[in-house]
Amino acid sequence: MTDVTLNGEPLPKLRPYHVLVTGFGPFSRYTVNPSWLAVKSLHNAILKVDVPTPGDHALVVDTDARLTATREIHITALQVPVTYDAVLSIVPGLHARPPVLPPTSDPFFPPRSPPPDGYDLFFHVGVIGRGALRMERVGHKFGYNMKDATATLAPIVRVSREESNPPPETQRSEVARLRDARDYSVESPVDGNDTPKRGFGKGYESFPEEIYTEVDVEKLVQHLKKCGVQVSFSPTFRP
Q1: Residues in Cβ contact with 188 at an 8 Å cutoff, skipping those fewer than 6 apart
Q2: Which pLDDT tens digit goes with each residue over 154-172?
Q3: CA-CA distance, 73 to 195, in Å (whole number)?
């Protein structure tokens, strides 16, 4: 089956869609992070999917009356250490054009040359608590008061008056829960005061306090549920 134009010529080949999937490295009592186990087998995988044909559909004759073409999805998997230093130094390069990937010495995960124009989609996978798969819709600039794998806290950030608002109740509740959890070490208030503002400071001054994904997460969750996957929305919080 081949999609052709009225002149009998094949449709132009669609450019590949590039996806970067990240998992985290070891932390606490986990020598291998479950998030990395979940994504590492996707490294250098190529999926082929049928997508609507671009351009003027009137100029297309499909042998099976389907106006679709095949697009390749190239997936790169990357393990990110569970340290604030690593995240702050690695992640900005992933979003550059062309992207800058950290070096790897693992022969089982040879690097793929990053796409010159950048990745089309980033999918970050992490571990937090038990239960169903949870989809996050928002990333936070502040509120990172959990110690990393080296027992180090995120940098303290000097904030403007507009950014000095107290955290929402959902965030406070989640911090309290994690503070009592076995695998997480969360900074405690000092002398009854709020914990310091920690997170993304220098170089992120122009960024808003919250950034929402452009992915239709609600639609994605509904689709996954129809496929039999146990999934829910995550609280809009990242400690």
Answers
A1: 179, 195
A2: 999 987 655 555 555 555 5
A3: 43
